[in-house]
């Protein structure tokens, strides 16, 4: 049947992303996903799973939106492609830039220019070059150092993975490239266990300031961070963290960059995650929820004060064949239209986000759960070996997470295990009944995992 054939072709020819190829061989090939509707994905063998990850943190409006397929079809018939290199643009690209600007100025009136790319990684590569170029043009060519955080994820390209703070990624390919410093992450459960959240936030911010001073304040170009670290394990910072980071950036004249690739387009109950924390970044990167993953597209939002400097430098020699791809832009516009029309931001902020938070409290008493936390529709469950501590099974990170994740998947819930943190990020259209199902499956799976982990 097709299933056996496709799995054999997968093993013979296809190298999936971030995969252990030897393990895939043992498993007999990848799970082939064939269709999806709403919040449910189905594989070629007929197994359906509730998609607790919105694909890969991206299918914000859910699956099966024929409106988005029609937007792509219509645009492809009219003009499938044109570039933005020849002093040219297309109507969808221009309209999408204006639409994104409308959402960015809600928090920062100066943030109203948009540069397009195709992925979150490319967006961060754009940020990297643009910022360094900006400081050079501004007459401060020594300001080239980026400060990022340990366990940050900013993509898989050379600049993206270097900006990111995952040491196991750095170990592959000789990264990071020079000029990137990684400081403490505001991970209260893991690194500030039992501490007062504000005191912990102060210590994290102090670490940034110490690094600025050791690098030399006149050498630091920018600070970059995800409002809530996603792939790092849904690290929700104490509420006081971001305003203090912003104040530090202003104190030393450093640009503030928010990577909104996961947090953008409603995830935290605002158009952008930084709007939840009340800060005004100079630059933001976005992707994923911008098109709900229906076509690849990303964007970098840039403040006018930066664009004014870029104007003094002639061509900014940076761009991609698919920058402003008209079909992707048309789909993104239609996607934002759905988010607006269905009030998905407000619904996340006022209804489903609080509902998830309450539902997760059902896990608080579970012997394996060290903490269950969420913000908007982004959640995490910390698995510990001893209740009331943050100790991990076998005294090391990464043993329990995959066990619980695999049992959840077997039981019909697609989640991700990041070290020992089970993370979830469902489509923003999720219903209260589906949220209950997520938590029910999590609870049953934790019960099933406990004897396995304690054996
Ligand atoms: N930045 C963040 C915060 C991300 O979570 C991701 C992907 O997960 C990226 C950047 C990279 O995006 P992409 O996979 O589209 O290159």
From TrEMBL:
One of its GO terms (molecular function) is pyridoxal phosphate binding. Gene3D superfamilies: Aspartate Aminotransferase, domain 1, Type I PLP-dependent aspartate aminotransferase-like (Major domain). It comes from the Bacteria. Transmembrane segments: none annotated. Keywords: Aminotransferase, Pyridoxal phosphate, Transferase. It holds the Pfam family Aminotran_3. Its cofactor is pyridoxal 5'-phosphate. Belongs to the class-III pyridoxal-phosphate-dependent aminotransferase family. PANTHER family: AMINOTRANSFERASE (PTHR43094), AMINOTRANSFERASE CLASS-III (PTHR43094:SF1). This is Aminotransferase class-III. It comes from Asticcacaulis excentricus (strain ATCC 15261 / DSM 4724 / KCTC 12464 / NCIMB 9791 / VKM B-1370 / CB 48). The lineage of its organism: Bacteria, Pseudomonadati, Pseudomonadota, Alphaproteobacteria, Caulobacterales.
């Amino acid at each position: 049947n097709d299933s056996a054939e496709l799995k054999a072709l997968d093993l013979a020819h296809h190298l999936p992303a971030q995969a252990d190829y030897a393990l895939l061989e043992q498993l007999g090939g990848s799970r082939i996903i064939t269709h999806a509707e709403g919040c449910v994905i189905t594989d070629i063998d007929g197994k359906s799973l509730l998609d607790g990850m919105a694909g890969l943190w991206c299918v914000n409006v859910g699956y099966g939106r024929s409106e988005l397929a029609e937007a792509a079809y219509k645009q492809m018939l009219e003009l499938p492609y044109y570039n933005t290199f020849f002093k040219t643009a297309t109507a969808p690209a221009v309209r999408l830039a204006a639409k994104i600007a409308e959402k960015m100025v809600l928090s920062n009136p100066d943030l109203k220019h948009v540069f397009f790319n195709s992925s979150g990684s490319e967006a961060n590569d754009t940020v990297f070059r643009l910022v360094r170029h900006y400081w050079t043009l501004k007459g401060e060519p020594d300001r080239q150092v980026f400060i990022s955080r340990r366990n940050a994820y900013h993509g898989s390209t050379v600049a993206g993975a270097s900006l990111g703070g995952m040491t196991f990624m750095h170990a592959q390919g000789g990264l990071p490239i020079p000029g990137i410093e990684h400081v403490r992450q505001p991970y209260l459960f893991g690194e500030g266990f039992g501490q007062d959240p504000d005191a912990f936030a102060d210590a994290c911010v102090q670490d940034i300031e110490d690094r600025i001073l050791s690098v030399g304040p006149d050498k630091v170009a920018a600070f970059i961070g995800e409002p809530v670290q996603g792939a790092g394990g849904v690290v929700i910072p104490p509420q006081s963290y971001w305003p203090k980071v912003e104040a530090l950036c202003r104190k030393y004249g450093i640009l503030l960059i928010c990577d909104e690739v996961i947090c953008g387009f409603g995830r935290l109950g605002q158009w952008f995650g930084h709007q939840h924390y009340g800060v005004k970044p100079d630059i933001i990167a976005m992707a994923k929820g911008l098109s709900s993953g229906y076509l690849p597209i990303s964007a970098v939002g840039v403040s006018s004060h930066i664009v004014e400097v870029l104007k003094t430098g002639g061509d900014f020699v940076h761009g991609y064949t698919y920058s402003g791809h008209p079909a992707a832009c048309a789909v993104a516009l239609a996607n934002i239209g759905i988010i607006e029309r269905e009030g998905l931001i407000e619904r996340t902020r006022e209804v489903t986000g609080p509902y998830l938070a309450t539902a997760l409290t059902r896990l608080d008493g579970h012997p394996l759960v060290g903490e269950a936390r969420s913000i908007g529709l982004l959640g995490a469950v910390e698995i510990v070996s001893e209740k009331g501590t943050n100790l991990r099974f076998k005294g090391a990170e990464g043993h329990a997470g995959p066990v619980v994740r695999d049992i959840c998947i077997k039981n019909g819930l697609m989640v991700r295990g990041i070290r020992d943190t089970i993370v979830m990020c469902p489509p923003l259209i999720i219903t209260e009944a589906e949220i209950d199902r997520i938590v029910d499956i999590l609870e049953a799976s934790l019960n099933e995992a406990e004897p396995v982990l304690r054996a």
